[in-house]
Amino acid sequence: MTEISVAEARKTFSDILNRAYYRKTRTVITRKGRKWAIICPIEDLDLLEKMEDEIDRKLIRKALKEKSKAIPYERVRKEMGLK
Hints:
Elements: E1 2-5, H1 6-11, H2 13-22, E2 27-31, E3 34-39, H3 42-66, H4 73-79
Parallel strand pairs: 1-2
Antiparallel strand pairs: 2-3
């Protein structure tokens, strides 16, 4: 993975895009020495979104299973001594 500064990225933007598209290269853009953003192949984004969706589905399934274990808010407030 390549790291370049914002200033360098401005000068070589089309080259960075071409490398992402044709060579499937990721480029990290830095600013003041800190990682700021990334330009990556669209396939990387697609995979990341699929992974996030799967995590969300697992969390939803877990929440639905635990739904029957829910405690009413009023009861929690009373047990915690809140008004």
